Amino acid sequence: MDKYGDSTGTTREKLNHAIASMCDEWLLIEEIDLENDSFEILHDNLYRHGIPVPRNCSYSEQNLEIQELIEPGYQEYRYTFCDRRNLSRILKQSDTAECEYKVCAGKNVWRRDVFKVAEWKANEPKIVNWFHMNIDSKKSAELRQRQAIREAYLQSEQAYAIKNMYLRRLNEELQMPINMIVGNASVARTFVTKPERVTECIEEISLSAKAIFRMVRQMTNTDAIQEGTLNLQMHQTSLESLWRNTLDIVKPSMKLRRHTLHLDMAQLYHPIVIGDVQKMQQILLNLLQNAIDYTPYGGEIFCGIKEKPLGKTSGYFEFYVQDNGVGMSDEFRKIMFEPFAREHSDRIERVEGSGLGLMIVQNLVRLLDGEIEVETKSGFGTKVTVGMQLKYGIENKDDQKRDQYFDWSDWKQVSSDKTMFSGQRVLIVDDNDITALIEEQILTERGLVVERAINGEDALCMFEQSPVDYFDLILMDMGLPYMDGYATTMGIRRLREDGKKIPVIALTSRLYADDELGEEEYGMKARLQKPVSTKKLVEAVRKYIEK
């Protein structure tokens, strides 16, 4: 009987059962006598995996023979670590030693050897227990986690590098339109008595502003692509309208370079389709801009669409842009879809753009489940074809009016707009002095009384101190600092009864409609994107204000 009242045999039997229950992890347990270079196997589960363990030999000989089971890259490390003299030196400083390595036998490849001192002699480890453990699942999970962290770090570094590179390129590209704006503003002041000259300057300023807007919007799309937050927004649209709208955007650049354009839609049989019109237009715009940038003065650009019907409900549409420009070298073709890749040629004076066009095109084509093909030869031009399957839509006159990616029609002053109000009060909540001033000017010219709050707290204070039904409409900037537009709107709704029913029009710089919140939660009547066009602002105010 032992001191706990149990027989030695029973205790050993329980111990064996306990060890057996952990046999998946503890594959081998040995007692090693470092002084006499011998060992005794206490538990061996390796035989189930078809792995023989040397028995009739010394510990040193066993350590040498086991090397055949170890992967070559770990053999020297494991042999040296488990050498009895090295173990004695390590265990003298700490009574536990561990090493991890990979084996080339059995199903599980990652193992751990744990050596723990069981008996000392003259401050030297004499008897050591060796636990041979299976750690493959844990080690594999750990390695996967490390790999995931490393990949995330590398992606973060790449995104940071791309952002810095883009900002540098953006700074270069912004110089020209900014200089045009400043220069034309100066000229307009000089010729203030000559309306026709001022009008020309305003047109030049408008074109430069559009160029800046397009650059910034492309940067935002690049961020969304990298973050994976770019969502599809499927609508019915006219492909003819899509093409002509896109061509209107690039016509000034083509006119400047004296390019000749050939548009072919003879093989388009179903002009009305269902697709993400904004992303399709961005693809076409980038392809056209690339063709313009890399085609010398007086060159030709061919573009169009070919339809291959797949049935009664859908077809395969090929959009193509072809030029007779400088083409691409074999070296550039290998990197043409990489960020900031730009081909340089003596045939063109200056290559504009950020170098992100083809990268954005490739990512958008993938998002739309399409295909892209590039045919090019240095000195003979380039043809890019984007193909995708689209469902047929039903022809509707409203398709021609649908907003597209860069639709500048709303930026134009509508001379026929005679909308006038009769002194209704509008509260503008906007922290940006410039945009608030523009909005105020548009509305006051049409007979409205405008008051402005510079932030959310100011808006709540102004509304609370005003008489009941004092304001008829609120223009709310969603991106206010500290208290955003959503929180400010909810605060106004809770202040008093007229705050619950007053129309609120949201103003936002966000480019995507997928973050739009419904009327049920915040009671927003409309959503306008900054910079707000005169046409859309007046239409929204006219719709929701009582005249």
List keywords for this structure.
Beta-Lactamase; Heat Shock Protein 90; 7-stranded mixed β-sheet; 5-stranded antiparallel β-sheet; 16 helices
Task: Write up this protein.
There is one protein chain. With 547 residues, this protein is α/β, with parallel strands linked by helices. It folds into 4 domains: 8-134, Beta-Lactamase (2-Layer Sandwich), CATH 3.30.450; 153-227; 235-401, Histidine kinase-like ATPase, C-terminal domain (Heat Shock Protein 90, 2-Layer Sandwich), CATH 3.30.565.10; 416-544, 3-Layer(aba) Sandwich (Rossmann fold), CATH 3.40.50. The protein is 43% helix and 23% strand. The protein starts with 7 loop residues before the first helix and ends with a helix. 26% of the residues are buried.
The level-1 CATH class of the largest domain: Alpha Beta
For the biggest sheet, the summary is: 7 strands, mixed
Q: Extract low-pLDDT stretches.
A: 346-354, 399-405, 511-519
Task: Give the helix proportion (percent range).
Answer: 40-55%
Q: Outline, from the CA principal axes?
A: elongated
Strand content: 15-25%
Layout of SSEs?
Blueprint: H1 8-21, E1 26-33, E2 38-44, H2 59-65, H3 72-82, H4 84-93, E3 96-102, E4 110-121, E5 124-134, H5 136-190, H6 195-227, E6 235-238, H7 239-256, E7 260-267, E8 272-275, H8 277-293, E9 300-309, E10 314-323, H9 330-333, H10 357-367, E11 371-377, E12 381-392, E13 425-429, H11 433-444, E14 449-453, H12 456-465, E15 473-477, H13 485-495, H14 497-501, E16 504-508, H15 519-522, E17 524-529, H16 534-544
